[in-house]
């Protein structure tokens, strides 16, 4: 038996951000992944240890998914509120805001 392998079979595929959400995943799942990716870009030296979905503010044209991420860097922990504003029709991101907070604002 001869097995054929193609070089492309060994190249890891980069996931697209427009991946459909599985039935058992919450509707905010992809937005949570984006929140974590973008927070990691903003705070590359910190490790994300937890996150919480705070809810969604739905508007007529734009909506905002709200998250709180908990990060740790150099034995110090801090929170970051992340708001992702997007177009309701296209789901194109309009902006992402970050607000760093300490333990007292949890």
Strands, count: 4
Unreliable runs, pLDDT <50, ≥5 residues?
1-19
What's the arrangement of strands in the largest beta sheet? Answer: 1-2-3-4
Q: What is the share of helical residues?
A: 10-25%
CA radius of gyration is 18 Å
Gap from first CA to last CA: 61 Å
Give the DSSP E fraction (strand runs of 2 or more residues). Answer: 35-45%
H/E topology pattern: HEEEE
Give the averaged pLDDT, no decimals: 82
Question: What does the secondary structure layout of this molecule look like, with pairings?
Answer:
Blueprint: H1 29-42, E1 47-58, E2 62-73, E3 76-87, E4 93-101
Antiparallel strand pairs: 1-2, 2-3, 3-4
Structure characterization notes:
Strand 3 (76-87) and strand 4 (93-101) form a beta hairpin. The protein is mainly beta. Helices cover 13% and strands 42% of the residues. The chain is built from one helix and four strands, in the order αββββ. The model is unreliable at 1-19 (pLDDT under 50).
